[in-house]
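Exam revision sheet. Question 4 asks you to relate a sequence to its structure. Input first:
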Amino acid sequence: MSQEKAFAVSPIIETTNRPNEKINIYDGELNFKTSNSSVILAKGHIYFKWFPHLRAEFNAELPNEIFGNSLFEADKIEMLIGNNLIGNCYISSQNIGVNHTVKGGFFDKFIIGDKTLTAKTFKFSILNFDDFLGENIEYVKENSKLYSKARIKLQHEKFEILIDKCEEFKEKFELLKENGGYQILHNGQINILKNSFSFDQITELVNILGHFLSFVSGRKNNPLFLSALHNDEILYQEYTGYPNYPYEFRPSWNNTYSTKYLNSLFTNFYELWKSNTDNKFFLTYIIHWYTEINCNSGYSEGSLIMAQTALELLYNWLIVENKKLIIGKDSENISASNKMRLLLSQLSISYDVPEKFSGLEKFRIDNKCLDAIEAVVQIRNAIVHSQEEKRKRLSEIDEIVIYQAVQLSTWYIEMSLLNILKFEDKYSNRCSKEIIKAYKLELPPWKK
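Answer key, structure tokens:
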């Protein structure tokens, strides 16, 4: 029996090859409804822009007899298309001349359509996600067939998630790397296998997927433009600008030469998230810290402080609360170095400085540190504590040493999370001395 063809997911948002171009959402009549229930009719244009923030904005022309302050001074402004509320909005500027025009944006969620409807098919877009070798799919073309290993498939008993590279992926990705910013590189589809999903249900699933993809890519990667469909008709479409980082190469543990391991990893991630509120809180915050550190949001010094916060969270969640290897006041009273040693001991990770980080090793020797952990903690303490002696010591630490301490700490975080998620495949080791484009692929320490 021949296998059914897998056709590429068609895009829900059409874009050009150029990154950072505005996306047109709507042109036509708009209604502004204020808190005193007055309704102002207008003609306007709604669009999605990338800078300085990812968000939907609008401009509208008001009837000349409407005085703009009635909108500026309103406690609450609702925007409607017809009788359907699409979101709460604000006015950022106005121009009263031959025509009376206003500009503004939206608070919270912005949805066109009826989100009270349930659906079994949903589509979405993913920005700036790196290249990978996945499952084979066919792109629909008029006079030819194009096949590519371009799909990530995440299967669950309740749903399946398909993430496909766009047909022009190579061209778009090259332009994105050249120009930076944002570009839709992957089209996604969620098929609900049992019953239908409400808006709240699909929003939670997409939120879980966004955190998972952020961990995989090493930077915030939340799906955008969630759309519910029935027989290819769009029931509603969301244009909320969820956090995504502008493109810049950042290292990640992700093995781009295979995607087969991602299904089991996502299943474990999903089940852990859904198991209880505390685990959801844990995954939310640990991935937040991880992506902020990996994208150098606080530069090296700030990243090292965030890394210590993340490792403290991992220690408490894994060692104290789940494995219960140390309990009571003893779990709080031990030093930061010993907390990290307890954590790494569960991962079969050596306390030595990796060979690649010669600057950090020299610092360890010069400062008579017992191991890599003590060296990292000493550098962190020099940054955090502001006494004159600590400031002098910090000024003497070479920037490359702080950078290497951040990279080592980030690897500890990656390994901890992968261990928690029962990862057993090969990964890219940022601490490996062998680096060309990708990092050396190897089994995690607990599988060697």
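Marking note for examiners. Residues 58 and 129 are 28 Å apart (CA to CA).
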